[in-house]
Amino acid sequence: MPIFDQLPQDVLDGILLSLPDFTTLSAVLRTSKSHLYNTFQAHPKSTALSIAYNLVGPALPQAVRVVFNADPKLCDEDTILADRVLDRDACELLQQNAAIVQRLEDLFSFRNKDRSSAASKLTSEESLRFHRAAYRFWLYCKRVQAELEENDTGYEQILDSWPTDGLLEIDRVASFLQDVLSWTFVLGTEWSDGWDSSPPAVLFMGGPDTALSYWESAELPETLWVWHLTFNFDEQLRTTLARRNIKADAQVTERAKAIIDTAYGSQDDCYRCHEPKGLDLWGRPNWQLLRGIISVRRLIQTLEGNLSRNSHEMSQLADHIQARDDDLRLTFDWAKFIEELCDMDGDAEGPWDKDQWYCLDCLLALVRLRLREWWTATKVKEGMQFKPDCWYGYNCRTQVHRAQHATKLNHLCTPTRGDPA
């Protein structure tokens, strides 16, 4: 790239120091193997630190400690940047971790700051609190694992190294990760289960990367080292805060406002029932998140009559909702599903306004009203085979205990006879 040959050294330095991430640095160095590469080799440490700051922001000290799994009792946040050299492996890991924390921030903002935006709407200060706490908790999880493997109880003093406001921020992020895992377990609930699955209490100790991985893949863990922990983070945190005169009730109050100063729409009402639900309202922008709120089991329970106990029909419906593509990604589109329910007008409710916001109870009322007809229409559209209608339709009792009857006749229809068989 001849243009770089003509630029003065300070300009070349400025170009490198302003790069947004290490992927860009690698690309730039490959395109100019002389001047820019030599410029980088002259100041590799300061260049890497500058790009790292561009990538991570002011939470860089906390992020670097995670990369090196640095013991907080031995390595201070104020000195970590001077003590450690960011080599290629460290830079790659730093960039991977930054992407994870950013995706978590987007999700956190979506559920706790602005329900209308999938991209984070946190202010710069709120974002710093979230990132700082996420990296601190991540390091805490890594240190607990490492020290338990060595039968070392030094992790008990880790929390003491952070200020009180930092501990409350960590508490809020840890609570959020528990929410993320709960949504993932809702995704994994089988329709035949008697209850929605819930994560083991210590699963969030796998760290931010583990929680996000489960949520994005919609995969439940089979085994994980943290399942065997007798260690209790909540108890450790309460004990640490109590030594600082923060009682349990005050901890709950302070945790709620530890990250976010102001949330958008926190006083908004449901369009249908007019109940004030704020951030727990659902509309077009966030319908996609319902996958972690409404389980297949809960969806099926809204069906009329005895349909929810028809194993043959419910297996087909559950398979449709939980289907995955060749890359094992869920294919069911919750936003499209709710939109199609809103558009149906074969009942007294008529079409629902898709541009309004509804509480979960009202959305479940919509599902209860139209799921059976939606599933019938979906089966027709996908060319699934229909059997002759059962006279007793969805009220049929025989469909519950006789598999042959359930598979031989269609029970999605309206009853045409009186008392169900």
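(ticket continues) Second input and output from the same batch:
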Amino acid sequence: MRILVLNDNTPGKGFLNDWGWSVLAEGKSRFIFDADTKREILLHNSKVLGLSLQNLDFAVLSHWHYDHYGGFPIVGELNPGIPLYAPPGNGTMVRQWGLRVREVAKAGDLEAGVWTSGPLNGFEQAIGVETPSGLVVIVGCSHPGVDGLTKAVLEVSGYGKAHLVIGGFHYPSARTLDRLSELTEFIAPAHCSGEDAKAYVRRKYPEKFIGVRTGSVLEI
């Protein structure tokens, strides 16, 4: 499996960048998780990475904040009719993007080998993806807490521990990061995690820390 960071707050050389989050995953299925803020960023950065944004099997939205859904119109334009798994709300907007809305109301399977936490606090979901190395948990902003989202994904997927947790951790406390460290082999804080959180994981759990930025490619 490959995870390609189409946009993160931390820039990469040769890539366009803004405050947002989007990754493209390639494995048993090919999908995009969150879609940043602008189509131009997704188009440019995918081209630099040598990727096509076409031929996606489905899309996932973590939560309804613009820095996570602003680029979905180009996803729908290039992949008309694919499902977008999103927390409830804004179905009309999704259809205007050319995507089929699939509202996620509870934890369960999304696709083969892909599970959702369901929208914690009725607001934000994370997903778990089965890989040869174990379960990869992808989060958006982790407003409900990255440890809670990870636990929810582990529970629904049946895994005892994640291989990797990647995404925005929403300025977590040291205690939250300590709890997260018990749930996963590797930690890749991005987007709204904050430099303090990155430094904490790098310092206390150097064997677990993975640094990512716009343009990063993780082979799993």
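Agent notes: The mean pLDDT is 97. The two ends are 5 Å apart (CA to CA). Closing as not reproducible unless the customer responds.
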